[in-house]
Amino acid sequence: MGCVSIAVHIGGSQVLVIILTALAKGNFAGKTVREELQVPTMQDRTWKMLDNSDAFITLPGGIDTFEENFQIASWAQLNIHHKPISLLNVDGFFNKLLSFLD
User: Fold this and answer.
1) pLDDT digits over 48-92, tens only?
2) DSSP label at residue 92
3) Burial zone of 32 (CB within 10 Å; 0-12 exposed, 13-18 middle, 19+ buried)
4) How many C-alpha atoms does 57 have within 13 Å on its Cβ side?
5) pLDDT tens for residues 6-62?
6) For 58, how many CA atoms within 13 A lie in the half-sphere containing its CB?
7) Do 83 and 73 touch, CB atoms closer than 8 A?
8) Of all helices (H) and strands (E), which one includes residue 16?
9) Cβ atoms within 10 A of the Cβ of 77, count?
10) What contacts 17, CB < 8 A, 6 or more positions away?
């Protein structure tokens, strides 16, 4: 996330971090962040991301990454939002998932 934050900042855009309060103590945000929103739960985080995003790009990650991606995708199927959703399939990270979903 740090590399993405730096690239966005260098490109002239503003960076918003939405982080769980329990993780905020680690100072993950860095110097490129314009604003940091702390939320108590993952569900609150996903809603805040929905409210503050124009689109969703999922980068390779762990269980929480998959959970958030599927939550956003299911909300699109339910017509809760109509924002673009994409996977950045670095080195085939998502190949097996895409094959399973196909």
Assistant:
1) 999 999 999 999 999 989 999 999 999 999 999 999 999 999 999
2) G
3) middle
4) 7
5) 888 889 888 888 888 988 876 655 666 778 899 999 999 999 999 999 999 999 999
6) 24
7) no
8) strand 16-20
9) 7
10) 5, 28, 29, 33, 35, 36, 37
Quote the tokens at residue 88. 């950045």
Q: Give which of 14, 51, 18 is closest to 33, Cα–Cα.
A: 14
39: Cα separation from own chain's centroid: 14
Q: What does residue 95 show for φ and ψ, rounded to 5 degrees?
A: -55, -50
Residue 90 one-letter amino acid: V
Structure tokens at 38: 């702390």
**DSSP assignment, residue 59?**
P
Nearest to 54 by CA among 88, 83, 81: 83
Write the CA distances from 100 to 36, 77, 82, integer angstroms.
Answer: 35, 18, 24
